[in-house]
Design a protein that fits this description.
Strand content: 25-35%
Helix content: 25-40%
Order of helices and strands: EEEHHEHEHEEHEHEHEHHHE
Structural class: alpha/beta
Bound molecules: zinc ion
CATH topology of one domain: Rossmann fold
Shape: globular
CATH superfamily of one domain: Vaccinia Virus protein VP39
Number of strands: 11
CATH architecture of one domain: 3-Layer(aba) Sandwich
Strand order of the largest sheet: 6-5-4-7-8-11-10
Number of helices: 10
């Protein structure tokens, strides 16, 4: 069997509006990022090859802290963040029970919190390693399916909520991805999207050194472009929110060791060294770089 393709797919026109005036913004590793001058969507162009992405998504992906203690710290942070997300969903009038699907469920912390609130949860996850961990996290509740969003295509129209946390910026075709999510929801069902925002304070402050400029991020949204992308897929009633995450100094410092930013990484290392353990591990709500969009599949009359 041939390995993953070494070809970097070139995007000729903006996938959101069809615009052809694409201006270079920054180069991330070997990959140029461009901005569509018509709609403001930013994306990697050409996109990284399958082979390049496969090399990035190894078993250690998204684990800046190793060992049982580090993993426990990450889980605590992810569960606290998941609770915020679930509170936000509830506040927007989303169904408070029923079937919840998360695509890109990682190690299952969001699903676990949703399950504890009474949702019947299903996770889809590309990484077999993360799937295993997610099943363990869920302790026998719900389902975790290895694959991509199409793995649950046969369950079209059955989900009350579809959560896409930090995943849309990773897919090659966000329009097709959101159409799949739309099809999976029942009429009146809700999609919940978390993604980095180029309008966030960290993006403005750090410019070309923004920590979300990563080789595996293919699309960079802002509120206006994510709303347009959701509308294009058929969603309505889009509401936009700041993406609050619960993070500890330990986690943030480790993140910037993995994705170094001159000045910031060293400063955090120093701050971490000067802080007592309890403070290093305390969770703080931080609006760092993300946005949250909540939208609805129209109810049938
Ligand atoms: Zn465009």
């Amino acid at each position: 069997m041939p390995g993953p393709s070494p070809v970097r797919p070139k995007v000729e026109a903006c996938p959101l509006c069809g615009g052809r005036e694409l201006r270079w913004i920054v180069t991330v590793g070997p990959h140029p990022v461009v901005r569509c001058q018509a709609c403001g969507l930013q994306f990697t162009n050409p996109q990284p090859a399958d082979a390049e992405l496969a090399a990035i998504y190894g078993p250690d992906y998204i684990l800046p802290l190793r060992g049982p203690e580090g993993e426990a710290l990450i889980s605590r942070s992810k569960r606290a963040t998941a609770d915020r997300y679930l509170d936000l969903l509830a506040a927007t009038g989303a169904p408070a029970s029923g079937r919840l699907l998360e695509v890109g469920c990682g190690q299952g912390d969001f699903l676990r919190q949703a399950s504890q609130r009474g949702f019947d949860v299903t996770g889809v996850e590309y990484s077999p390693f993360a799937c295993q961990r997610a099943r363990h996290t869920l302790g026998g509740k719900g389902r975790v399916i290895q694959g991509e969003i199409d793995a649950v295509a046969s369950e079209a129209g059955t989900y009350d909520i579809c959560a896409l946390c930090d995943v849309i910026e990773h897919v090659r075709d966000p329009a097709a991805f959101l159409r799949s999510a739309f099809a999976l929801l029942r009429p009146g069902g809700v999609v919940f999207v978390v993604t980095p925002s180029i309008d966030s304070w960290s993006a403005r402050l750090l410019g070309r050194r923004w920590m979300e400029f990563k080789e595996e991020h293919l699309f960079y949204y802002r509120p206006a472009t994510i709303e347009r992308q959701l509308t294009l897929a058929g969603f309505t009633d889009c509401s936009l929110h700041r993406g609050v995450k619960l993070l500890s100094l330990e986690y943030v410092a480790a993140h910037f060791e993995k994705y170094p930013i001159p000045g910031l990484t060293g400063g955090l290392r120093l701050l971490r060294a000067l802080s007592p353990a309890a403070l290093r591990q305390k969770l703080f709500p931080l609006v760092a770089s993300g946005l949250v969009a909540v939208a609805r599949k129209p109810a049938t009359n």
